[in-house]
Amino acid sequence: MEKCNKCNKELRERMKSLGVRQWELAHAIGISEPTLTRWLRFPLAGERLALVETALNRMEKREV
């Protein structure tokens, strides 16, 4: 799997528009910030993408 600089651009833009920091998203998912940083280095898919999207949806509604 090759690392890319623009991976998960939409997720990063959504985080920015919501004012969500990586540590906050990581906390909402239940992982460490370094783990989330590593996840975002590569295109997210499957369970990881679902976890991130669910957390962002909850944060958007301010449930977290």
Walk me through what this model shows.
This protein is an all-alpha fold. 62% of the residues lie in helices and 0% in strands. It has helices spanning 9-18, 22-29, 33-39, 46-60. Helix 1 runs parallel beside helix 4.
Features:
globular, 4 helices, mainly alpha
- The chain-level structural class is mainly alpha
**Rounded average pLDDT:** 92
Largest sheet composition: none
Shape: globular
Rg over CA atoms, rounded to whole Å, is 11 Å
Distance between the termini: 32 Å
H/E element string?
HHHH
Number of strands: 0
> Which regions contain 5 or more consecutive residues with pLDDT less than 50?
none
The helix content is: 55-70%
Strand portion:
under 5%
Structure annotation, total helices: 4
Task: Summarize the entry for a quick read.
This protein is mainly alpha-helical and 64 residues long.
Compile the SSE list and pairings.
Blueprint: H1 9-18, H2 22-29, H3 33-39, H4 46-60
Helix pairs in contact: 1-4, 2-3, 2-4
